[in-house]
Structure formats: structure tokens, C-alpha cells
Predict the structure of Cell division protein FtsX.
Amino acid sequence: MRAQFVLSEIGVGLRRNLTMTFAVIVSVALSLALFGGALLMREQVSAMKDFWYDKVNVSLYLCNKNDAQTGGQCSKGAVTAEQREQIRSDLEDMAIVEKVHHETADEAYKHYREQYSDTAIATVITPDQMPESFRVKLKDPEKYKVVATAFAGRDGVQSVQDQRSILENLFNMMRGMNVAALFVMGLMLVIALMLIVNTVRVSAFSRRRETGIMRLVGASSFYIQMPFIMEAAFAGLLGGLVACVMLLVGRYFLIDGGLALSEKMPLVNFIGWDAVIAVLPLVLVIGLLMPSMAAFIALRKYLKV
């Protein structure tokens, strides 16, 4: 096979179908950028779960004298010293508990003032209104229900709260965004494949005279089909490169510059550049192979050799 001939045919095909080739590049770029973004979103959710689940606690809020006035779970009055020590002892005896920290009402008030000092309600809250609590670090955060079952409804215990449940709402939202991105990616992928098939079809029809001559002189099927396949591969590769640039720019804009989420949300463990770079080869490979396979299948139908 003469490489010069194949390359010249590729150039001819790209010039003849410039508009459709551009549409293929844009469609492939958008679909692959969404695909890469979905992979990175899943990686971000996983990183955040690993980071936060290791830090979340189960909080046992104890009754105080103000709770006793409202009735309900604390209708028997504020937690007694004996009840407090018994709760601590039972928590420390549980095999799933790694560490127990007692936070007094004064400490809770201090932390509240540090976090909400700018709000109006912070000026009227007093230390005696803040509940004391036990902050329990579990060896396995998934075992929260064991603690909740053992202490919910117990005398002196106002409520049992799993901080992980607060994070689950965030993670579920991010998973929903991931599914939406995958859906849009699938739609764009279908559009890109249809454009590739139509581009190959038009290109094959416009060059039917040349392919007919090549058949007469004994050219092989692979030799005739190769320029068409490489045209699609070239367009797909360009789309993959554009998608890689979009992912790199997107990561920089969202996390480092522009929105600067890493500065505005310092407690969030954002994915690093290594995670983005690890996705790029996969994006390029798919960008190269997907149009090539689509062109090969289309040629079997529209270019009988």
C-alpha cells in the first residue's frame, strides 16, 4: 500500500466533506468530554466518601433542662451524672466503637459561636440551651444503626444523629448529576455515530468512480476502505484531543482558577491533576476507535467491494 496515495485520499475526503467533518469533531468532542467528566465525577464522589466517611461521627445528644420542659423524649428531665457515665461506659464497651468524645454544653456553645457568629440567632443563644453530647467515632461508619438501636429512646438521650446521612444527600445529588451527564453523553454519542455514518456514506458516493477504477485494477477491499476509515479516525482523534483540552480547562477553571472551589471549599477533598490525566488516554483511544469502527461498519453496507 502506498502511504502517499492513502494520505492524499484522506485529504481529498476531508476537503469534500469539511462541514460534516467539523460536525463529527464537535459531536465526538462533546460526547467524550461528557464521558470523561462523568468518570471524574464518579472519582470525585469516591474521593469525598473516603475522605468524609473516615471523619464523620455518630452524635448522641443528651437531654438538658430546657428539653425537659418540652416533654417528648426528655420528659423525665435532664440527663443525670449517673446516666451520662453509664452511656459513656456502654459506648466504650461496644466493639464497633473506636473512640468516644464527650462535648459539654459550654464546648458546644463555643463551637456554635465560632461557626454562626454572623447570624442573628447567635446573639440570643445561651450555653444552657446547648445540648451536651457524645461524639462517637466508629470503626465502620456503616454500623451506625447498631448504635442508634442501642441508645435511641434511652433515658437521658435526646436523639442519635448520624452525620453520614447529611453527606448522603450531597452524594446522591452528585450521583444524579453523573447519571444525567452519562445520558447526555449517550445521546451525543448516537448523534456522532450517525454523523460519521452519513459522512462515510457521502464520501463513498462522491468517490464511487475512483473506487470503481480501483476495483477494476485489482485493489483489495482493505486498500479501498482504508482512506475512508482513516478519515473518520482522524476526525475522531481531533474530537478526542478537543475533549482532553476541555477536561483540563474545566478542571482548572472549576477547582484552581475561575470559580476556585479549592479555596472557597477547603474542607472538600477535590480530585487532583493525576485523576484527570489518567482519564485522557482512555478518551483518546475511544475517540480514535469509535469512529473507525463506525466507518468500517458503514463501508460494508455502502461500499461493496
Notes: The longest helix spans residues 163-206. Strands lie at 58-62, 97-103, 133-138, 157-162. Residues 1-52+169-303 form one domain. The chain is about 70% helix and 10% strand.
